[in-house]
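Design a sequence for this backbone.
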């Protein structure tokens, strides 16, 4: 077993993970790739979002952290951002609500005067063993959080983004792998991949790049709060690298896509899957 069986109530908290996840707190070293940029990161309080927030701050960016209500996790992420010498603004609230998506963008612009990077990372999933076991409300909520919010945030942010800006979305290996017990989640992740490809073409003439990262199994609070305990315990064993990934292992891909290093990359999906092919 890679990690002990465990369960949390959604949306989950970092402090309850056993073992603790690695967000690059002790390992990520920046080199000014995002110096003086302003980034919005949804789901930035924990998991992949926290790792990206830490990396962006160490690369020189100020960060707006959007999260649902996990105040303890958000404050810890803020601590690491400020320790890197950058500014952090916390934005609690539900991105399933279009008005809140617009408010995140408005607050970012009012506070920092610009938006250079938008990371659409927040996600909801739940494991269900049959079609009948998926409540109608859960299906709708999964799409509201995972794909509809992405549309509302991009629509609000793009008018404030200059040439050279970047949108980075979090897709998933499940966009292609499509496991049966994550039906709504997998459907939204496939939608994100296509949304990214289409929007990348649509915004090319504005000089705004749009890409996505496709993680494999990553050790975050989302896992024990949405999956059966035994599945949690064996997470990652089926990938070629035979282990679960850490959030810190995703951050460099987000930094690359957000920075000028990816100036000729748009509409793309970058797999970070532990070796699982995405063909």
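Sequence:
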């Amino acid at each position: 077993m890679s990690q002990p069986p465990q369960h949390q109530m959604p949306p989950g908290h970092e402090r309850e993970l056993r073992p603790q996840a690695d967000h690059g707190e002790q390992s990520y070293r920046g080199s000014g790739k995002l110096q003086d940029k302003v980034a919005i990161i949804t789901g930035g309080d924990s998991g992949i979002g926290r790792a990206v927030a830490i990396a962006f701050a160490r690369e020189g960016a100020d960060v707006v952290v959007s999260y649902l209500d996990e105040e303890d996790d958000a404050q810890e992420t803020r601590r690491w951002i400020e320790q890197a010498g950058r500014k952090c603004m916390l934005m609690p609230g539900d991105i399933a609500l279009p008005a809140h998506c617009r408010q995140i963008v408005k607050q970012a612009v009012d506070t920092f005067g610009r938006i250079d990077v938008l990371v659409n990372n927040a996600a909801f999933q739940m494991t269900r063993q049959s079609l009948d076991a998926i409540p109608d409300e859960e299906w709708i909520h999964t799409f509201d959080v995972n794909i509809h919010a992405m549309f509302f945030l991009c629509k609000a942010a793009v008018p404030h983004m200059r040439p050279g800006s970047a949108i980075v979305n979090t897709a998933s290996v499940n966009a292609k792998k499509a496991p049966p017990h994550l039906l709504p989640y997998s459907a939204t992740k496939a939608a994100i991949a296509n949304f990214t490809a289409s929007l990348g073409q649509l915004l090319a003439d504005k000089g705004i790049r749009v890409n996505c990262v496709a993680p494999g199994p990553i050790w975050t609070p989302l896992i024990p709060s949405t999956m059966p305990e035994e599945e949690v315990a064996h997470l990652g064993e089926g990938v070629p690298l035979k282990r679960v990934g850490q959030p810190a292992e995703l951050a460099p891909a987000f930094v690359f896509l957000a920075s000028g290093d990816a100036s000729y990359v748009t509409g793309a999906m970058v797999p970070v899957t532990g070796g699982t092919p995405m063909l």
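The longest strand covers residues 209-215.
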